[in-house]
Design a protein that fits this description.
The protein is α+β, with helices and mostly antiparallel strands and 254 residues long. The chain contains 9 helices and 8 strands. The longest helix has 25 residues. The chain starts with a strand and ends with a helix. Pfam families: HipA_2 (PF20613).
Length: 254
């Protein structure tokens, strides 16, 4: 999805990528990671591709969109000019107003979608997102519509982060297990280990064509060549096996 930024609201005072909050022409506010963010350009395609893959798996991923910031808006906003924001297609995550980040076990009380937790952990191992197991900032607890839910955000470090063709090849069979205080919070909520098996089955049943849909329409300025897309699809195919091996070890913790 593409939206246009209509006004700048404020800086989000958290995160290595120094995201900014904008109101956009679909009426939503977006937490926007910029083309020239300090974590690097790969953050943008990583977020979008991971969001689309997560959605294919029916995981509670926060909605992402390509956010176009115009030169005109930058001219009108001294703050954007000071931060040297560039006009162009940036990456936005729909801002969830009534949320907190997941920090402790109490935050999960009453969440209605904890059946997705095994899927989330399997997903992170498939796409090699090492940045959720221990990082308190990367799961939001949303309280919209009277329903309390976990929402997965921040896939900047998917595919290990700043990947290259060489690193994709190197990592496609990597079986590393990610673990930390955030995954630990889910131990009481994943009582049936078969949930990992069914999450893995879902990942493994994604077709190559479906993986390609996650690559479609990425802005040229995000600098992901057709070859890189092809190699990323190949990497994801390989990792269907590697994720299974990692999960065999990880299941012992539950
Ligand atoms: N969609 C959203 N709705 C509400 N708050 C958000 C949203 N996206 C991000 N945030 C807030 O902004 C913070 C930084 O966002 P995010 O984790 O995506 O960026 P980051 O720079 O990659 O962070 P990190 O320091 O984990 O690498 C989050 O921890 C969260 O507090
Ligand atoms: Mg984060």
């Amino acid at each position: 999805m593409n939206v246009k930024a209509v006004s700048y609201i404020r800086a989000i005072e958290e995160g290595w990528s120094r995201p900014l909050l904008f109101r956009c022409d679909d009426g939503n506010q977006y937490v926007v990671k910029l083309l020239n963010n300090p974590q690097g350009i790969k953050v943008l395609p990583n977020e979008m591709i991971a969001f689309r893959l997560g959605r294919l798996l029916h995981l509670p991923v926060g909605e992402c969109a390509i956010v176009h910031v115009s030169g005109e808006l930058i001219t009108q906003s001294p703050a954007l000019r000071d931060m040297q924001v560039k006009a162009g297609p940036h990456l936005g995550s729909v801002y969830r107003e009534t949320v907190k980040v997941l920090q402790n076990a109490d935050d999960l009380t009453g969440c209605c979608n904890l059946d997705k937790a095994a899927g989330m952990i399997a997903f992170d191992h498939w796409i090699q997102n090492w940045d959720r197991a221990d990082n308190i900032g990367n799961i939001l607890v949303s309280k919209e519509d009277d329903n309390k839910k976990i929402v997965m955000i921040d896939h900047a470090n998917a595919f290990t982060g700043s990947w290259t063709l060489d690193s994709l090849k190197e990592n496609r069979t990597n079986r590393s297990v990610y673990w930390g205080k955030i995954y630990e919070l889910f131990i009481p909520h994943i009582s049936d280990k078969r949930l990992f098996k069914s999450a893995l089955r879902q990942i493994q049943s994604l077709s190559k064509a479906e993986l390609w849909t996650a690559m479609s329409g990425l802005p040229r300025k995000w600098s992901v060549s057709h070859t890189e897309q092809r190699k990323l699809v190949k990497y994801l195919e390989y990792r269907k096996v590697a994720a299974g091996e990692a999960l065999k070890d990880l299941r012992k913790k539950f």
